Amino acid sequence: MAYSDFKTLDQINEQLGIIINEANKIYSHIEPVEVSQWFIETMKRAYTKAVTIGTEVARQALIVDLVLIELEGHVPISFFLGTTFNVDSSKGLTGAPDGLISKSHNQLYIVSPVIVLVEA
């Protein structure tokens, strides 16, 4: 099983025991940031192109990757694309997800905690 085999939140809850708690406002203290002019202009063009092409690869390359680059300019993270991330094969946490975000500036290897991006 690969990361992309998880299709619903119910499936994630059942197989991994992760409970979604919508009442938990863990990000409520985070202040909005102003995105760069570069991001605004580039995203206008990239979004139109991604929608026209209409594939997952286009959305990844033209939208998600731009968001990750902009995010990296505002918070201390690193991101990885196409990197194998085998965590626990018995739970289906194997393979190369579309992307990973790590709460670390280290770009040489993945440092926890991480967010896994699947099917942009």
Name the descriptors.
120 residues; alpha+beta; three-stranded antiparallel β-sheet; 3 helices; globular
Number of strands: 3
Radius of gyration: 16 Å
Backbone structural class: alpha+beta
Order of helices and strands: HHHEEE
Shape: globular
Kindly give the count of domains: 1
Q: If helices are DSSP runs of H or I spanning 4 or more residues, what is the number of helices? A: 3
In the sheet with the most strands, the strands line up as 1-2-3
Average pLDDT taken over every residue: 89
Note poorly predicted spans: none
Q: Give a short account of the largest sheet.
A: 3 strands, antiparallel
In percent, how much strand structure appears in the residues?
Answer: 5-15%
**Residue share in helix:** 25-40%
Span of the ends, CA to CA = 18 Å
Please describe what this structure looks like.
By secondary structure, this protein is α+β, with helices and mostly antiparallel strands. The protein has one domain. Helices cover 35% and strands 10% of the residues. It is built from three helices and three strands; from the N terminus they run H-H-H-E-E-E. It has helices at residues 9-16, 37-53, 56-72, and strands at 78-81, 99-102, 114-117. The two termini are 18 Å apart. The mean pLDDT is 89.
